[in-house]
Amino acid sequence: MKKILILFALLLSYSTFSQRQITLKEAINIAQKNSPDYQTILNQNQSSYWRFKNYEASFLPQLRLDATIPQYLNSVNRITNDSGQDIFVRSNQSRLEGNLSLNQNIALTGGTISFSSQLERVDVYGDINSTGFALTPFSINYSQNSLFYNQFKWDKKIEPMLYEEAKRELIENMEQISLNTATRYFALLKAQVQTRIAISNLSNQDTLFKISKGRFKMGKIAENDLLQIELSVLNSKNELTTNEINLKKTSQNLSRYLSIDTENFLLSIPKELSTFTVTVKKALEEAKENRKAVIEFRRKRLEAERNVAEVKGNNRIQLSLNANFGVSQQGNVFNELFKNYNQQQYVTLSLGIPILDWGVSKSRRKLVEANKDLINTNIEQDKQEFEQEIYLHVLNWQNQRNFLETAEKAQEIAIRRYDITKKRFVLGKITITDLNLALQEKDKSVLQYLNSLEKFWLDYYTLRKLTLYDFIKNKKIEVEDIIYN
Fold first, then answer.
1. Closest CA to 30 of 227, 259, 326, 276
2. Model confidence, pTM
3. 275-314 residue pLDDT tens
4. Whole-angstrom Cα distance, residue 303 to residue 371?
5. What domains, with CATH codes, occur in the chain?
């Protein structure tokens, strides 16, 4: 490691045994398992997972039991007799009914077929008690709400895309956790370094003030120079207080995000990454293959086409089909229900044609077509922004390592210059103004280096998020060990 990193390591090496030493990589690993953001995205992904499982299950056979156990009725009801007259009769009876059905959605047609068995018992109470049974041992029913629009066909296309989006979004969110952690990590790292520098500056200024007081008594410096040095001591005290407050705040921010019960961290300066090359072409290829947005573009187009198909399918002629075939029997003795079955079958084709709707059907169709065109236009704009973001970030990343090297070199020069200037001041060869200027440039260069190092790492994790690709290992980024309970 270069000299300046060694210097920072020495500045940060002071610690008590209670301090927790942590690297950027360790902090990210902890955040990707314990942070509030991780818990949120895990819950979101579980919701998407179970939605997809529900969709898959909808195309599996569904066995269902419906029963009325029992229904008792004792009331006066109005009925129409065989002569067409309405009369009132008292009904005192109980009814017990059970229906066992096996239902299956048919993706090819958009309808539902069901196989069912039904048994009903009616007990009549009064002057003459009686019991009746009705049995439908076997019945096949097919129903379809629309012959021109197949909802299942569109679900087959769209639901898997939604699930794939959710999986890719999970990986993107995990990379966002890396970015969030790095931001908090560097905020605390800079606060620690600035606090150490403030402590060192205060100590140096206090020493120089003591030396200057002796030189003032000997008449070697003017009172104005002594006052300026004393002012520097007071400013250093205020700077230290400000940095200590910022250190406390940034420590709390990192501690809460990592869900760790300590705020006493000792951070290490991240090492530079191994050199690797990222081309715009490669970044765009990986982004188009891995990012959620690419699936989202296709899914939005399909949803717009589905809405148009639904309106066209139901807008003019509305057709629905219901058909049934089975056997049944009824009687007063249960054991005789299984003899001489009666056939039952029916087919119902419902037709609805709007004759005069004052343009409602046309306006509804034009509306969804306009929405489809708008969605396609927005998608094209989003695609351009998607590609431009990657293009600009790759260009920026290609220069970021050079910026970091320049900032590191500038920092080394500023620190060496300050050390030389301080020695010359002690020897009385320069004024306090020159010393303060050198001190300010030294502190500024240290902060600029840390800012450049922070931007280097944030740009790196942004590049990973934009492409979902690890350019160091040359592999796609994957999230494993996601357990659905």
1. 259
2. 0.76
3. 788 889 999 999 988 998 889 999 999 999 999 988 888 7
4. 11
5. 3-54+155-299+375-476 (1.20.1600.10), 66-106+111-147+318-353 (no CATH)
